[in-house]
Amino acid sequence: GLAARGTFHGLYSVLSKEVNYVTDSLDKKCISAIMKCRGELLNLNCKRYMHNRTQLCSLCNLNEEEDGVHFLAVCPILAPYRIKYFQTRTLSTDMAIEYLNGRNWKLLYHYYCEAWQYRAF
After folding, report:
1. Domains contained in the chain, number
2. Domain containing 67: what range?
3. Residue 6, Ramachandran bin (φ over 0: left; ψ between -120 and 50: alpha; else beta)
């Protein structure tokens, strides 16, 4: 399908499809957050399937599209949360993929919760 080819879903096409976060001992909120992050189902400004709207990050001044990679790995405004959970200001694409493939579901979840709460404010 389109998601598997990554037509509208950035990194999804390069993520492992063999991860078992749904069957791991994670609560429903954590599983939901992982699904949203992995499938780029977050309600961010960049929606490649929608035209005639701003797709740039509304938090920072990098003038970049606010997609899942920007939210998880790049946005400098969210750097304090990355430092807290991943011990780095930015994540490389490879490192972002590692976390989205299960390097540490709990860290990904806690980052998502705090960064998303800040973004929604």
Report:
1. 1
2. 2-120
3. left
> Distance between CA 121 and CA 107 in Å, rounded?
21
Angle between helices 105-120 and 28-38 (to 10 degrees): 80
In the chain, count H helices and then E strands.
6, 0
* 113 contacts: CB under 8 Å, gap ≥ 6: 33
The per-residue pLDDT for range 59-93, each reduced to its tens digit, is: 999 999 999 999 999 999 999 999 999 999 999 99
In terms of pTM, does the model score above 0.90?
A: no
Q: In this predicted model, what pLDDT tens digit does every residue of 84-117 receive, in sequence order?
A: 999 999 999 999 999 999 999 999 999 999 999 9
Helix (H) or strand (E) segment spanning residue 114:
helix 105-120
Burial of 30-69, coded b for 16+ CB within 10 Å and e otherwise, reads: bbebbeebbbbebebbbeeeeeeeeeebebbeeeebbbbb
